[in-house]
Amino acid sequence: MRKTVNDKKTLSDLEQLYELTFSLDLLKNRLIDYSTFEICEVELKNIARVFNEVVSGIANHKSALSDVQSVLDTAITPLEIIFENTLQIVCADPAIFLFFVRELYALSGKLNAIKNKGNC
Questions:
Q1: Chain Cα centroid distance, residue 88
Q2: How much is the pLDDT for 19?
Q3: For 66-83, what is the mean pLDDT?
Q4: Within its chain, how far is the Cα of 57 from the centroid?
Q5: Do 59 and 101 touch, CB atoms closer than 8 A?
Q6: How far is Cα of residue 89 from the mean position of the Cα atoms in its chain?
Q7: How far apart are CA 41 and CA 22, in angstroms?
Q8: Hey, which end of the chain has fewer CB within 10 Å, N or C?
Q9: pLDDT category, 102, cuts 50, 70, 90?
Q10: CB burial of residue 54 (10 Å; 0-12, 13-18, 19+)
Q11: Rounded CA separation 108/69 (Å)
Q12: 3-state per-residue secondary structure call for the chain
């Protein structure tokens, strides 16, 4: 019975990760002006690099990080600053980026929770 409960929880966590990742991927379809990406290209690439390192570490059970969320949040913060200072002014629909940043933080929290539970 305990194995079934753990399997369901793991499946639920993975499903939530998929939903967050899918939602984040929709950004490219929601933006009308792709030049917006040029403004924050460095920050987006850094976020991608950090997320890849963290997910790889969790998947391989080799993550030495005690607080995955703080590492990921540190990578997300520069994008949030650019949003607050620039993107909300130049974007045709700044709410899209606001939701994107919030979902990045949600993904960060979910990965941290999974790592701390040892589900993956």
A1: 20
A2: 93
A3: 90
A4: 15
A5: no
A6: 23
A7: 20
A8: N
A9: very high
A10: buried
A11: 5
A12: CHHHHHHHHHHHHHHHHHHHHHHHHCHHHHCCCCCHHHHCHHHHHHHHHHHHHHHHHHHCCCCCCCCHHHHHHHHHHHHHHHHHHHHHHHCCCHHHHHHHHHHHHHHHHHHHHHHHHCCC
What dihedral do alpha carbons 31, 36, 42, 48 form, nearest 10°?
Answer: 0
- What is the C-alpha separation between 109 and 105, in angstroms, rounded? 6
Instruction: For residue 66, give both structure tokens.
Output: 């005690």
* Cα 82 to Cα 112: distance, rounded to the nearest angstrom: 24
pTM of the model: 0.83
Question: Rounded to a whole number, what is the distance in angstroms from the first to the last CA of the chain?
Answer: 19
Q: Which residue has the higher pLDDT, 5 or 85?
A: 85
